[in-house]
Specification:
disordered C terminus; 7 strands; two-stranded antiparallel ribbon; 49 helices; five-stranded parallel sheet
Length: about 900
């Protein structure tokens, strides 16, 4: 049984109390299909020390007086002789005649039932479970409620269940069973949570469900277990796979229909017939619904009985079903001809896309005229609601009388689904369209869209080839060809094939450079990206300076990415803030005008810039949101990049388990979709994690793997995958000096040609380490190399690498006996590592400080536990408790608890004091 742990636990507590002679009653209520009976039967198996009895009310006996008591007495008939004679006689007369004797009162009947259950419980604790108590006859129900209010001191547990529809109206029995009337505590069943609902749906489906099909079922079921079980059971294999359309509204299963039909059966025939109109209409204004009812010949007040019975209700000017499952039953209980007639009238009454939906539903045979009308409705819808547009295009395709026309409409539906981010749906639509299409031009368009989907959802090498070839066939259409080539560049970069990317980028640049405009800027930026990747930083800078930044979000993100590689961090963030709609601020952003795909790319780019420049809290916030946006739109490349940024943070902070989990997820995405560039970045993160932990053999393995991928791809910019300098250090730490010298010689030559300042700094740091390791370097040469490194660091803003240089310098100073200078360098490094939360590096500094004779006491920040430090950093940066809880996947109460400890340990009393405390720590 899924999702009922809390409810079962509440009953288990009552059952445990029977061991000490105490009992109690509970009314379990819920809407039809929420699993009252399943829960009750599960509860009967919880405790084998009690005597458990299950009974159920029945609609057929709800008018028979004392029929419910008859069931109870029958269950405990062996205990009747233990009752006093007057109570035994009273019960016997009631069950024989269904009438009370003169002088017998409701109190006497209730007392007799209490006596019977008490006599039975004297031998063994009782669990009496009565299902569907709302169907019991009224006298029996009153007697049982009398008992329920008086068993607190008896070893008896009485459980009753009843239907509750949650509407303002309802049956008299339902109203009589409210806690305020019964005096019995109520346990109200709610829907299953999304995870349990998904599990039950998957278990109930007879065929594998496409995700978009499952999402539709989940939306209608709303966590109702019976609906989750029945809705997928009636689907055909084609409907489950998405190749055939689902009914609208969905068809209910037999059990779902049987559960709700009694509610509809209580309505008079005119109301039940009129109910088909709102069932077919769905969510439409009540005025339009009234006009449709009039055109169909229904009385103006035809739906009044349904409102009084709580079947439908008015919400914000629209008449809707109180229970969405009732709508399914009301619709499919009508004949097909009546349903089509209602849709035909609704198509006349309504306007816009919704009228197109009803027009399509009113026709089942191919009709070119109707298909054109539905297509016109789809065009009206696609700009504001691409999902609605796609659905209408699909319906129009079903009405087309020509294979190519149907394929064209399916192509338009796929375009809409792609804009909506429904990748799985796009793949299915394109497959159907390609199977129907015969015209060469149409098949070419379908192939292009398939290639685009391939590039966005994986397999970038194939996407690059198909896009490049498609662009080559577009003679006389330079703009379209250039757009395809730019998409081909993106695919080649994801595949870590910079040579192929460079060829396509140059082609696009040549096609657009004389035209100007946004497309020319996009081509120049793409070419600059590829040139920068390949180490041609000078050419990349010239291309960017030669083009004025426009407003296209994708181009602004690409320009910002290159600026970041060129160490123009502030200019890059200004562009990214424009995309995200954020004011320039040190921490996370607010929702702006960019769509989720653009937002994911912009956030991922800004996360890397913040990681480099020491704003690790901001980097974590951006990367986490980027992952969420990429998941929303199923953008695998952006998802993998966001995960790698998070993993890089976890690696630097020494969080082994968290880093491993994120890297495993990133690797799964990268392998599934051919993202070789990401695989190299994963290897870099693995190397950093091992290097910080002192596992130099593992670090060498990770960085060698990253180096092999980078060399094979022709990627030379160290900002993309900073492996070379780290590999030199890992070689040195593991005693492989010859290999370290060779790798450093190559890296130093490349960086002196066109490297960024931070890379020149770490190259100088590696030179100092090599001079010391070789044993014949003069102290002056080592000192000069360290000073050169620090001078290069002063020109840049890469905080973490500067702290690493200070650590290496401090270690060398201590080993050469210059203890005071060593302490200065080490303490400066410690302040940075502490503020960043780079625990392995912080501990390495502390070890050196102790060796240098200094007291390596914990700094203000590092007196805190790891969790307290994260919370304090977020709060100091301006986050609320709720925002902090969301960022760290905690509850606000947990954040409040840890924040109290932070205040106590740091001796602060307010958020402003906490912020000043953290501001005083350098490098944060």
């Amino acid at each position: 049984m899924l999702g009922r742990i809390a409810e079962a636990s509440a009953v288990a507590r009552l059952l445990r109390d029977t061991a000490s002679g105490r009992g109690g009653a509970l009314f379990v209520v819920g809407e039809p299909g929420l699993g009252r009976t399943t829960l009750l039967r599960r509860i009967l198996t919880l405790d084998d020390t009690v005597r458990a009895v299950y009974l159920a009310g029945a609609a057929a006996e709800s008018g028979l007086r004392y029929a419910g008591l008859h069931q109870v007495v029958q269950a405990y008939r062996c205990d009747l002789p233990r009752l006093p004679a007057p109570q035994r006689d009273l019960l016997g007369h009631l069950l024989a005649t269904g009438q009370q004797r003169p002088g017998d009162t409701g109190l006497a009947v209730g007392a007799a039932m209490l006596g019977l259950l008490g006599a039975a419980a004297a031998r063994r604790p009782l669990l009496l479970a009565i299902d569907d108590a709302h169907l019991l006859d009224a006298p029996s129900r009153e007697a049982l409620l009398f008992v329920a209010r008086r068993i607190a001191e008896e070893p008896i547990v009485l459980l009753l269940t009843a239907e509750h529809r949650g509407s303002a109206a309802g049956s008299a029995a339902g109203s009589a069973l409210r806690p305020a009337v019964t005096g019995v505590p109520e346990l109200r069943l709610g829907p299953l949570d999304p995870a349990d609902a998904w599990t039950l749906l998957q278990q109930s489906a007879r065929h594998p469900l496409r995700r978009f099909v499952a999402d539709r079922l989940l939306a209608v079921a709303e966590g109702n277990p019976l609906a989750l079980t029945e809705l997928p059971a009636v689907l055909t294999p084609g409907q489950c796979s998405g190749h055939l359309p689902l009914d609208d509204p969905l068809a209910p299963g037999e059990r779902l229909r049987d559960t709700h039909l009694p509610t509809l059966a209580r309505l008079p025939d005119p109301a039940r017939a009129a109910l088909l109109v709102p069932a077919a209409a769905g969510d439409v204004p009540s005025g339009d619904l009234q006009r449709a009812l009039e055109l169909l010949g229904h009385a103006p007040d035809a739906l009044l009985p349904a409102e009084e019975e709580g079947v439908v209700e008015l919400r914000r000017g629209r008449l809707v079903f109180a229970d969405r499952r009732l709508r399914l039953v009301a619709y499919h209980d009508a004949a097909t001809s009546r349903r089509r007639a209602v849709h035909h009238v609704l198509a006349q009454v309504l306007r816009g896309p919704v009228a197109g939906r009803h027009l399509a539903a009113a026709h089942t045979c191919p009709s070119p005229d109707v298909a054109r009308a539905v297509e016109a409705a789809a065009r009206d819808a696609e700009e504001t609601d691409p999902d609605a547009g796609a659905e209408l295009y699909e319906r129009a395709a079903g009405l087309a009388d020509d294979h190519d026309e149907a394929a064209r409409l399916l192509y338009l539906a796929a375009v809409c689904r792609q804009r909506a981010g429904a990748a799985e749906h796009v793949q299915m639509l394109l497959g159907k369209a390609m199977a129907l299409a015969r015209a060469p031009g149409l098949r070419r368009e379908l192939a292009v869209l398939q290639a685009r989907r391939s590039g966005a959802g994986g397999h970038p090498r194939t996407a690059h080839r198909v896009l490049r070839d498609a662009a080559g066939r577009l003679t006389g259409e330079p703009d379209r060809a250039a757009r395809l080539l730019l998409e081909a560049v993106d695919s080649a970069v994801h595949a870590a094939d910079s040579r192929a990317a460079l060829g396509s980028a140059w082609q696009a640049y040549r096609l657009t450079r004389l035209c100007g405009g946004d497309l020319a800027e996009a081509a120049a930026v793409h070419l600059a990206q590829v040139l920068a990747l390949r180490g041609e930083r000078g050419q990349a800078r010239e291309l960017l300076l030669g083009q004025t930044a426009g407003e296209a979000a994708r181009v602004l993100v690409g320009r910002a990415e290159v600026l970041g590689w060129l160490e123009e961090y502030e200019a890059a963030c200004v562009l990214l803030d424009r995309v995200l709609g954020d004011p320039p601020a040190p921490h996370g952003g607010t929702e702006g005008g960019a769509n989720p795909s653009q937002r994911a790319a912009a956030l991922g780019c800004r996360a890397w810039i913040r990681l480099w420049t020491g704003d690790w809290h901001g980097a974590r916030t951006d990367a986490t949101e980027a992952v969420g946006c990429a998941e929303q739109r199923q953008e695998t490349a952006a998802l993998a990049q966001g995960l790698v940024a998070l993993a890089r943070l976890e690696a630097a902070q020494g969080r082994v388990a968290e880093c491993g989990a994120i890297l495993a997820r990133a690797a799964g995405v990268a392998r599934a979709h051919g993202l070789e560039l990401v695989m190299g970045q994963i290897a870099v993160a693995e190397g950093l994690l091992a290097l910080g932990a002192g596992k130099y053999v593992e670090a060498v393995a990770g960085y060698e793997r990253a180096g092999a991928l980078a060399r094979g791809a022709g990627i030379e910019d160290p900002s993309v995958a900073p492996w070379a300098a780290n590999l030199v250090e890992a070689y040195l730490r593991s005693g492989r000096i010859g290999e370290a010298e060779r790798e450093h010689g190559r890296f130093d030559a490349e960086m002196r040609r066109s490297g960024p300042s931070w890379a020149l700094a770490v190259s100088a740091r590696c030179r100092a380490l090599l001079l010391e390791a070789e044993g014949h370097g003069r102290p002056g040469a080592v000192e000069a190399a360290f000073h050169e490194a620090l001078e290069w660091h002063a020109r840049g803003a890469v905080v973490f690498e500067r702290a690493r240089t200070l650590l290496c310098h401090g270690q060398w100073l201590r080993r050469t006996g210059r203890t005071p200078q060593a302490r200065d360098a080490l303490e400066e490094a410690l302040s940075v590592f502490s503020a960043l939360g780079a625990v392995p590096w912080e501990e390495a500094v502390r070890s050196e400080l102790r060796a240098a004779g200094a007291r390596a006491g914990r700094t203000t920040c590092t007196r805190l536990t790891e969790q307290e430090g994260r919370i304090a950093t977020l709060v100091a940066g301006g986050a609320t408790n709720k925002e902090t809880a969301a960022a760290l996947f905690l509850s606000p109460k947990t954040v409040e608890f840890h924040l109290g400890n932070v205040y106590r340990k740091l001796g602060v009393r307010s958020r402003s004091e906490l912020a000043r405390t953290f501001d005083a720590v350098p490098g944060g």
